[in-house]
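Question:
Write out your own:
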Amino acid sequence: MPKLLVIDDEPGIRFTIGQVFARNEIRIFEAEDAGRGLEIATQELPDVILLDIRLGSQSGLEVFQSLRSIDSRSLVIFITGYSTAETAIEAMKLGAYDYLVKPLDLNHLQNVVAQAFAISRMMRVPTIIEQGSRSEMDAERLVGGGLAMQTVCKQIGRIAAQDISVLILGESGTGKELVARAIYHHSLRSQKPFLAINCAAIPESLLESELFGHERGAFTGADRRRIGKFEQSDGGTLLLDEVGDMSPSTQAKILRVLQERRFERVGGNESLSVDVRLVAATNQNLDDLIRDGRFRRDLYYRLRGVTIQIPPLRDRREDIAELAHYFLFRYNRQLGTTVQSIAPAAMELLEQYGWPGNVRELESAIREALITSTGMALLPEFLPAELRHEPASHPDLDADESPVGNIDWQILPQFVEKAIGGNETDVYRRARDQFDRLLILRVLQHAVGNQNRAAEILGLSRVTLRARLRAMKGFVE
């Protein structure tokens, strides 16, 4: 369970933060002074620390340095007043993650802490490249004993300790981020930061600011200086995901960082030095982009110190059974299900399917099947409809990309019309059950099976949600 430490001498601040995260699956520790905070940090090694910039007579910088010496991977977020913002910025140059200005914007607080937990997980959750046992479910594994994945794992082992840039190529869902994290965990920079940025998910106008930071007043809305990902990951590793989507101007700045290890913040004149290992990933054909003039050839050669090509799942079908069982036992643990095996008929469907979404789609399919399954074996009827070659009752939505509102609600009027036409009774209850199944399953997918988070999204208590789940035939035992 993620750990959050709050070090602040104001009881009201500690109480408010505790209330904000009370319903999340987070262990919260509180300290009213620096001494107690350092004691808790030493004992608990928290993932994220919220630190007041002034703790009585002590400087937040002194406390920050002590926290860094305890565990350099703990992400520190400063809480500061306007008058001390420059001190927090100085701390960020030394490795702090972010700073928040009082009075706290609680929504912004939640977003920043959630992002910090995600980054902490990347740094702390090991990525295992050798074969492991089922007891290693706390780790994430590059699974596959076939020749293609053996080649990938050998490449990782050869280059991880070499301080060179790496270019990872592969279709969406093949596990490019997992390979990048494996390189990081087995590198000489594994005790330093690991950050990732999706170049395709951030508007072009904001991407340079995210990467290089900006000065106050650099553009409309830049009301304070921002430290970018390059400064935050100094000494560590930075993953540029979907690097093929970067604009030419951003590509030019990345090239300069690789050549000179220097850059300027947006709107600034100060030249800053940085020591970062770059790992880039893309699902696009960079040769085609270069030919079309959309990607710089010189940047391409700088990024590909070593190239790792990850094969699509359809080209490594010998790994499907191992992957399916890995996800089965992993999500059994997360969801509290007790499915022990995959029926031969279900495995045959898994191995015959084309997997356009690659490993990510297989993971989603196993997770969905576990949510709807009963008994000790995963049977074909629990698999998503497209694997059974049946028309889906609702679209196959990606849990990380599709909102709840995209569900095909036409299933409900179709059901009602059919019930009315057939002179059926008890239509209201049955339609409500259909609605519950559509909505609750979708939200559970979005929450990756976390029932506390799903209850929060739905606006239900955990008890009410579990009661609704029990009412859905075959959902929970």
Remarks:
- The chain has four domains: 3-123, 127-311, 314-391, 394-477.
- The radius of gyration is 25 Å.
- Confidence is low (pLDDT under 50) at residues 130-137, 390-407, 473-477.
- DSSP finds 19 helices and 18 strands in the chain.
